[in-house]
Amino acid sequence: MSTSPRSDVIQWHDRSKIQLLEHIASLEKEVSIESQRATHYREQWQISILAFKEQENSIRSLCENSRRYESDAEASKQRIKRLEEAGDALFENSNPSRWDSPADAARKIIDQSNWNKAKEAKP
Asked: Where in the chain are the domains?
């Protein structure tokens, strides 16, 4: 059975149109998938940025605490130094004198010995 050239053209046109519509549908599906993928990556990127900011805030807080601890440690060192100087001054003035009773003189010698041991034992 022979078909007319017009009907062949119409059939070819219809097949081409169907193939084109199928190809367009396929492209739309690919675009949709890539759009979803892009949305996923954008969300992951935003989550990463939030996590980074939280870490940055934690690090900043740790640095501030570290500076405060360093300042507190330095103040403690200065206080210890002043206390040691005061202890040394008291030590120099705590020598037993001939007017001290034997018990007071012994206590002063023991106190001096304890002061020396305490200074040697410091870290």
From this structure: 5-80, 93-123
